[in-house]
Write a structure and sequence with these properties.
five-stranded parallel beta sheet; binds N-carbamoyl-L-aspartate; alpha/beta
């Protein structure tokens, strides 16, 4: 088996991956971290070009992919706003992808439309990585989330997970649940305002994959959880801004709340950016693990690029 299952692969939907695929990825990410901390990173992707096509805003996903590519010796081209491309002149999405396919060895794409990355993968001959498509998938974030859990707890299995917030529109939640269904969590608890509950199609899908979901009150979830995964209300996905106003500020994880209810060993993860759902006073507590999570994005994405593009020293 080795690393071959990853070679030239598209990364579109977390359901395309097995537990073994993720374990190979995590081991490769460990290797990348060792190289980064020793200051000797093998430039296995020298001569390759990675295109980042971000039709939607991003800080961490785009920049960690770009940092990862550059650490491995690749060059990066791309854009981070649709207005900066010929799409603004009326060029079609498919034509834009065709161009990038001719310019680069791999394309990382983010788009507000669900299915955009899958369409890009159909058009492009080079591998395509989905950096987020609407509220559907964000597979590399889910890989990073589980890699962070493994780093913090030594394993993804056997833990109690609480997912808090916008379960309806956050693609990170849908992808995390799908990735978790490959493992053996002790429990998966959900806590959300009534308007932001998990969409039926996601609930049915993950339950059919054997994940048992528990709907809990926030305080109960906090008291049982090892991993507390907080998400931002996805304001930009609300069809009606007034609906957003109704749920705005409806939950907020603070130091006081954690100290009152959470286990001392619990860790708070958040894909970031945060707005007001996660107070800054959590930053200096032992619960805070979201900055580690963000920083692991570079080695995790180095591992992905290396496995997919077949970097020699891997
Ligand atoms: C997330 C996203 O874009 O879905 N951000 C990220 O990639 N870390 C989460 C969010 O925007 O709330």
């Amino acid at each position: 088996m080795g690393i071959l299952p990853w070679r030239s692969r598209d990364v579109i939907d977390p359901r395309d991956f097995t537990r073994e695929d993720l374990e190979i990825l995590f081991e490769e990410a460990d290797k990348m971290r060792r190289q980064l901390s020793s200051g000797r990173v093998a430039r296995t992707l020298e001569g390759k070009i990675i295109a980042t096509a971000f039709f939607e805003p991003s800080t961490r996903t785009r920049l960690s992919f770009e940092a990862a590519a550059k650490r491995l010796g690749a060059d990066v081209i791309g854009f981070s706003a649709e207005e900066a491309t010929s799409v603004a002149k009326g060029e079609s999405f498919v034509d834009t992808i065709r161009m990038l396919d001719g310019y680069a060895d791999l394309i990382v794409i983010r788009h507000k439309y669900e299915g955009a990355a899958a369409l890009a993968a159909e058009v492009a001959r080079v591998p395509v990585i989905n950096g987020g498509d609407g509220s559907q998938h964000h597979p590399t974030q889910a890989m990073l989330d589980l890699y962070t859990v493994r780093e913090l707890f030594g394993s993804v299995d056997g833990l109690n997970y609480l997912i808090v917030g916008d379960l309806k529109y956050a693609r990170t939640v849908a992808s995390l649940l799908r990735a978790l269904s490959l493992f053996k969590p002790a429990s998966v608890m959900l806590s959300a305002p009534p308007q932001l509950q998990l969409r039926d199609e996601v609930r049915r899908d993950v339950e059919s994959r054997g994940l048992r979901l528990e709907y809990v009150k926030l305080e109960e979830g906090l008291s049982r959880a090892d991993v507390i995964y907080v998400t931002r209300i996805q304001r930009e996905r609300f069809p009606d801004p007034q609906e957003y106003e109704k749920v705005r500020g409806s939950y907020r994880i603070t130091r006081r709340l954690l100290e009152a209810y959470a286990k001392g060993s619990a860790k708070v993860l958040h894909p970031l950016p945060r707005v007001d759902e996660l107070a800054a006073d959590v930053d200096s507590t032992s619960y805070q693990a979201y900055f580690l999570q963000a920083s692991l994005g570079v080695p995790l994405r180095m591992a992905l690029l290396n496995l997919i593009l077949g970097g020699e020293a891997s």
